[in-house]
Amino acid sequence: MKKTKAEAEETAQLLLHTAKRHFAKHGYAKTALEDIVNDSALTRGALYHHYKNKKGIFYAAVESIQKKIAQNIKQQASMSSDQWEQLSLGCRTFITSAVDPDHKQIILIDGPAVIGWSHWRQLDANHSMSLLYSQLEQMQKNGCFSSLSVESLAHSLSGAMNESALWIAEHGSSDSLDEAMRVLDVYFEGLKQTK
Prior knowledge:
The protein is an all-alpha fold. The chain contains ten helices and no strands. Helix 5 packs across helix 9 (150-171). The longest helix is centred in the middle third of the chain and has 24 residues, at 54-77. The protein is elongated and about 60 Å long. The model has no long low-confidence stretch (mean pLDDT 93).
């Protein structure tokens, strides 16, 4: 019997949700497709139909998390009307979301290695980085800082946040996030001085 579009989407989402759980807990290398389909009470054929292979469902997991992080950033940044605070809230949200136990193994550790650095960077550029770029561009238009290259600034801040997230994920200290944010605040203070 042929499934409806809604049923097919439900199957795809169930597989993806289960896969993310396995990838987060066991890592890419130790996750077996058999475990994903068994825990989903589905068949390998269903997984192959929706995602082609293990790398395909992992790519979908990385993209799904990137989208979720971008949604979190938008939501948290909108809590303030002050552009500098929006930037700070967005950066903090990116880092906390990246080091979330359900995310860090997938997007920080396995992601760049499994899907390749260029694909990983493209997903980041499509989601979190595009929000950062838009925020910085708007801030520059509003005179928050001088005519620095917004593109260069976005890449520099994104790199700093990704490295901070990796550092926090490795150290696991509850103070690490606050330390990373204090460093970013120093960057922001310097940026303010370029007016």
